[in-house]
Amino acid sequence: MTRKQTRAGTYTDDRLPVSRRQFVGTAAATGAALGLSDLTSATNAEAVPSAGITEWGDPVTLGNGDARTFTTVTPSGTPKYHGLLVERAALEGLPSAEDLANSGDDAYTDKYGPTGESVVIHHKWSQEFFVPFPATAATPVTFLGLNWNPGGHPPDGVWTEPHFDIHFHMLPAETVDAITGPAAPSYDLPDRYVPDGYARGPVVDERVITDMGEHMVDPTVPEMNGGTFSNTLVWGAYDPDGDGTARLTFVEPMITRAYLRAHSGTDRRRIAQPETYATSGVYPTAYAVRDVPERDAIAITIEEFEGFCGDD
Question: Using one digit for the tens of pLDDT, what is the confidence trace for 34-44?
């Protein structure tokens, strides 16, 4: 028996001989999590980050607080979470676009450093961090690209709210660092690699963004249809080998500061999957935003890792 993902984000059993996705195993899944739909809130079933099996990255300074990457892997080697823990204090005192534009040489000069770099991304000022994840061997995830966008970014009227881009990258940092844009993609992305329900169509023509890659979005999200932007998942792709064929290279929760300030409980949503990946491996099938009151913080995680057959 195989399983296929429905458009609503839940799962159904299917006895057809070929499923849309080919599983090579389930790395970490719970029945309760798989039952949650795209917009469901739930109470924390366990403490996250998990004590005793979580490794931490070095903190970076964000606003009036800190943010830290973490990786949680069970003693058996099963990946549970890659995440970013953001202190609630970090949501206050964040630099404005004017602050970033006028920062000079004494602040925001190193994306690999603790205060990040002031850069123009998507034609807008952004505070950018490249932050390693500890213990990533169990998954393709390599590092976190974190951007604070005080004036949002294009398209106008869609993603122009102050927000964070939280990129879970699957390429080496030096490869992502060499990506330039904004530009239209100049490579092919096979349909089998495009996540279910996502579109490559030109939300904006310049979909390849500096230090990131090509962005794809689900066109049914509220902000694409006259609604409010609060919490959206973006998939990313790039051609790192220059051979003319791209593959999926990052998954990106894009979340407004207003949403994080008001958030409580746990909001877990599905990550749409492609028919297949370019490389076999263990990939996340859900992401979550959790209030962590004991740390006065919020955790943004990718989770529910499952094994997929790839084209390799």
Answer: 333 344 434 34
